[in-house]
Amino acid sequence: AQAVMNFVVRYRPDEQPSLRPHHDSSTFTINIALNRKNIDYEGGGCRFLRYDCKVESPRKGWSFMHPGRLTHYHEGLPVTQGTRYIMV
């Protein structure tokens, strides 16, 4: 397997608190938590609109994987306090 593109996303209430609904361009997406919910930040998470399913941030270092294209339209939920970092 080969990773084609990886990047770090920073969510802050005063900069980019959330991410609008979108499809990823990948076949699969892996999202890795780089810091701690309720300690480093509050709010956040990922919501899959078609399934009305919300994934709260996992523990620091944990990840979740989902299909990227077509079927999993999703959005980044607002961070209300602190700074959230994820690697995608």
UniProtKB/TrEMBL annotation:
Residues 1-88 form the Fe2OG dioxygenase domain. PANTHER family: MULTIFUNCTIONAL PROCOLLAGEN LYSINE HYDROXYLASE AND GLYCOSYLTRANSFERASE LH3 (PTHR10730:SF7), PROCOLLAGEN-LYSINE,2-OXOGLUTARATE 5-DIOXYGENASE/GLYCOSYLTRANSFERASE 25 FAMILY MEMBER (PTHR10730). This is Fe2OG dioxygenase domain-containing protein.
